[in-house]
Amino acid sequence: MTSSPQRPRAKPAAASAQPLLHPRNRHQGRYDLVRLVAVNPALRAHLIRTPAGTDSIDFSKPVAVRELNRALLASDYGIQHWDIPDGYLCPPVPGRVDYLHGLADLLAADNNGVIPRGPGVRALDIGVGANCIYPLLGQAEYGWRFLGSDIDADVLQAANANVQANGLGERIALRLQPARGNLFAGLLQADERFELTLCNPPFHASAKEAAQGSQRKLRNLGGTQARASKAPALNFGGQANELWCTGGEASFLRRMIRESVDIQQQVLWFSSLVAKSEHLADIRKQLGKVGAAEVREVAMAQGNKQSRFVAWSFHSATARKVWLQQAQA
Question: Per the UniProt record, which residue ranges are transmembrane (predicted)?
Fold first, then answer.
């Protein structure tokens, strides 16, 4: 296990300084495209020249982002096989791994500043998706074990192809959530315990709203790729369950908070990304209602995109320390 300085706890209100990628994130600054093309020659076909005279890729094209991800996963994380079916969410690696680094800091704060590493730490990814990105990155960076859940059997089949192709069946398990309206309910066995849960929830309320959001992203790129010399702030593609749900992000998170109460003794820290800052006030209110013992809000940023995750625990600081000591014994 390795100690690391902790990122300061985020303030509930907007901070004065713009948050940056986590200090442990491998993807600071511009991508080394020469190195990445050497790892994945298929990326070469997607290189473009920006108005500033630098090489980049067209981040508005999912196929280009997919080839970039393949190069990053192979070169930096030892993931030699990664694929997703056409039309599924193609997440930018730097932003996804940033969430994991923030969660590692959360555990370290309860572990005398030392990040718990290895299979003694188990994480539950709600809505793992065909890309299976969080389990793949989390086991590579920290050696954690993962259980990924989804309501779509086809999605789990695609995710499992990535797991098996990389020989990670002992580190990453996948499970179907049989009730489409549930998140935690009916998913876990009574004796299962998790140090972390994580989630990238669908944040649109309808298919129409999701389509409008994608169009805004494309317009923001403006066709010039002037901002593409930095790590990508956006991702494109996605199926209905990945992009929208009834009531959108706010409704999804209220349901997650309600269901977390029933399995509070099985989970040390619950967490979720929160795309829209205007939802934070309601999240705080709901967590107060259910009696969460600790709530953390951690700011993140990738390029011009501002994001954050919220984490909550029903266990006291002392109880969390004991839990982690037992998990690593």
Answer: none
* pLDDT tens-digit readout, 268-307: 999 999 999 999 999 999 999 999 999 999 999 877 778 9
Domain ranges of the chain: 86-327
State both tokens at 165.
């192709």
Amino acid at 264: Q
Superfamily grouping for domain 86-327: Vaccinia Virus protein VP39 (3.40.50.150)
Q: CB under 8 Å, gap of 24 or more: what pairs does 211-218 form?
A: 213/243, 217/60, 218/60
Strand, helix or coil for residue 128 = coil
pLDDT tens digit string along 164-215?
999 999 999 999 999 988 999 999 999 999 999 999 998 534 444 444 444 4
Separation CA 78–CA 63 (nearest Å): 21
